[in-house]
Amino acid sequence: MTTDDGALLSAWRAGDRGAGKLLFERYYDSVVRFFRSKIDHGSDDLVQEVFAACVAGSDRLRSAASFRPYLFAIAHNVLRDHFRRRQRVGETVDIGEESTLQDLSPGVSTLHAEAEEQRLLLEALRRIPLNYQLILELRYWESMTTAEIAEVVGAPHPTARSRLRRAHELLEEALQRLGEAPARLASTQANLERWAQQLRERRDPSV
Length: 207
What we know:
Helix content is 68%, strand content 0%. The protein is mostly helical.
């Protein structure tokens, strides 16, 4: 069987459950990582919710090549719904545009990082609005293009590009506010993609 996303998706939509299973296995770890870095409990339920919604809405896919952004768009919506549910049951959760992960999930501890620069990056990400944190994670942890990011967040492509630029600015400001030594800040900023890739590997449930 051909194993590229497009062929698997076409086979799945034609009724081949095995093709759908292969697609889910391919992206399962990424979806798990997406949630475990943002909530303190219940991530497994949210992962199952994402894949159930993926199956239910597969006919809405515009093209076979759009599966990955389609999947992460669902994960994005499920995450926001999760915080809204917490708000409805009386938790003091603010899901506004400026909400950070520190506001939404203060119980999620920062992952221990082998390098100080990695720890600094993780802490800074928690201090910028979640909407911008997600964009940076999609860019650096999932290696998405700005066009794919636009699909995930439901914004026009030029808007996604401008949000990515703004996310970098906010991250740099957060790094500055942490008050670390200038040399360490410079190292983190200059090696953002490398540190992000190393953190991605450390958060991978399969590693």
